[in-house]
């Protein structure tokens, strides 16, 4: 009997193409692109405009004439299947005439997907951290506590399946410039 896989629709993955212009209203800009809801929050002391986008692309593998695997990326078209890899790009465009300091971008790891560890690409001066508790706290290397058969507890690196969000902290964004960071997830 053939096992059929159900397609996973993008609505279940959260926002895949989101564009917002957000004026900042507190000291440290924090931009939260979703918690699988497609919402964004930005905060800063000055009235500055930042255009935010979260874009998604599906990985497509093919073979060239010499049998080598070629990887390309296509815009999401509405369905993904288990095993598909989706690359998300967090984009923050500083549309103001001023530098923005300490910009923080939070991106979701949508339900039904697992973060591809070591897939984050961001500018060199950024700090990357991850959440395993729905975005409540972040750490560069999240850990979990595991109870051993002898009753003792041991701290271990959190598995990829536990990751719920990624955070990109950018020390500064020049006026009229753009910052991009990408990460990949795999559909379960």
Explain briefly what this protein structure is.
The chain has about 190 residues and is mainly β.
Number of strands: 14
CATH classification, class level: Mainly Beta
Class by alpha and beta content: mainly beta
CATH topology: Immunoglobulin-like
Question: Any chance you could write out the topology, listing elements then pairs?
Answer:
Layout: E1 8-9, E2 17-23, E3 30-32, E4 49-63, E5 69-75, E6 79-80, E7 85-94, E8 100-108, E9 113-115, E10 127-131, E11 143-147, E12 153-157, E13 165-173, E14 178-187
Parallel strand pairs: 3-8
Antiparallel strand pairs: 1-6, 2-4, 4-5, 4-7, 7-14, 8-13, 9-14, 10-13, 11-12
Would you mind describing this structure in some detail?
- The structure is a single chain.
- This protein is mostly beta strands.
- The chain has a single domain, classed as Immunoglobulin-like.
- Helices cover 0% and strands 49% of the residues.
- It contains no helices and 14 strands.
- The protein has strands spanning 8-9, 17-23, 30-32, 49-63, 69-75, 79-80, 85-94, 100-108, 113-115, 127-131, 143-147, 153-157, 165-173, 178-187.
- Strands 2, 4, 5, 7, 9 and 14 form a six-stranded antiparallel sheet that branches. Strands 3-8-13-10 form a four-stranded mixed sheet, with no helix packed on it. Strands 1-6 form a two-stranded antiparallel sheet.
- β4 and β5 form a beta hairpin.
- It is flat and about 60 Å long.
- The two termini are 21 Å apart.
- Residues 1-32 and 34-45 have low confidence and may be disordered.
Q: Which properties best describe this structure?
A:
188 residues, mainly beta, Immunoglobulin-like, 6-stranded antiparallel beta sheet, 4-stranded mixed beta sheet, 14 strands, 49% strand, disordered N terminus
